[in-house]
Write the structure tokens for this entry.
Amino acid sequence: MAAEQYDVVVIGSGPGGYVCAIRAAQLGLKTACVEKDDTLGGTCLNVGCIPSKALLSVSEKYAQAAHDFEGLGIGVGTPKIDLKKMMAHKDKVVGANTQGIAFLFKKNKVDHIVGTGAITGPNTVEVSGKDGKTTLEAKNIVIATGSESTPLPGITVDERQIVTSTGALALPKVPKSLAVIGGGVIGLEMGTVWQRLGAKVTVIEFMDRLMPGMDMEVSKEMKKILTKQGMEFKLSTKVTGAETAKGKVTLTLEPANGGDAEKLEVETVLLAIGRRPYTAGLGLEKAGVIVDNRGRVVVDDHFQTDIKGIYAIGDVIRGPMLAHKAEDEGVVVAEIIAGQSGHINYDAIPSVVYTFPEVAAVGQTEEQLKDAGVEYKVGKFPFMANGRARAMNATDGFVKILADAKTDRVLGCHIVGAEAGTLIAELALAIEFGASSEDIARTCHAHPTLNETVKEAALAVDGRPIHI
């Protein structure tokens, strides 16, 4: 039986893969998307971005009802947690999103093929499914297999007592105590969920700061805010071992630079030290596709590997492991394959931490600008001075804009505050278009809105904010 022939075969249906497949089909290319799991959407939609945001949203409402409503004149008594219903809401959200992708595949005539894909040649993909193996012939192959949780020596994950983000999204009860290994995005977000619901949360971070890679001032501000919310932190600390017993896990901790060990006993441990490219079973070595020393697929500026016609995008290649970065790369690759030109400005890719308040950033940090010897100006404005933030009882945080000292071009923006993930879009657009801080300052912003903090920060770059 002749192999099915396609213009494009995408391996993986996460944000990068499914978007790439849809865009390729829109451009008139016969396209298939191979996914090993029964549902589409990859880690992001099934056990990552979407379910975590569902739990973050519900737990935030619970925390507000428990701690804030009375002061606002709303009497609801003592709120109760129905974890089963909370998880059902999360599962419903996940189901709606994954089914939505299936609908989009049908609408755009993308063939959804269930099975594990392996590259067996420059133009062939072998799919191992429930009914055996099939071979697909493809003029172009796109690797979009995403990432997996990074393991830590000495820590054995069982997804019950010691969990990754996957297990943390499905705990059967609120743990009395939770140790989070890793003070990055995933650790802080999932730690926030369970802390709001009643767990005593201790975050253990090897570096001397939270959210390594973010602006230092942001890291310090969030440590202060999260400490006030009840989280505890052990920075400059490494975990060297874990022993599990019924109902508890005992971690062995040591100072990052060496020193005496200590023990920490908790009910549950979340391992969240980052993610690594997932390429298991792809057959990259056999196909001749080169990977670097971090396991990332090596690609050129057009996302093509060293093998002509084989491309890679998203978490499996260099750059930040962000769903929207993968989506943009998926669109660009599809357009390149179709003979068009694509464009991504990696300086204009925002990142968001969905705690409360949120953290959002785009462009360069102060530390990066200093290291590069770039002269810059800083404009900063606190949410405390914003009328809408006061009305919302959400006055923690600030907006900080960094602009070139000579040209005034916006180089970066860092926000700690309510709805920071939405506010950062204006700054991403500014960087994409090469705008100056004056461009933002002279743009009329609606009143009263949180967006006015952005305008005021832009005014502050020139030393002329109005409301402070």
In short: The chain has three domains: 4-149+276-344, 162-272, 348-461. Residues 237 and 255 are 5 Å apart (CA to CA).
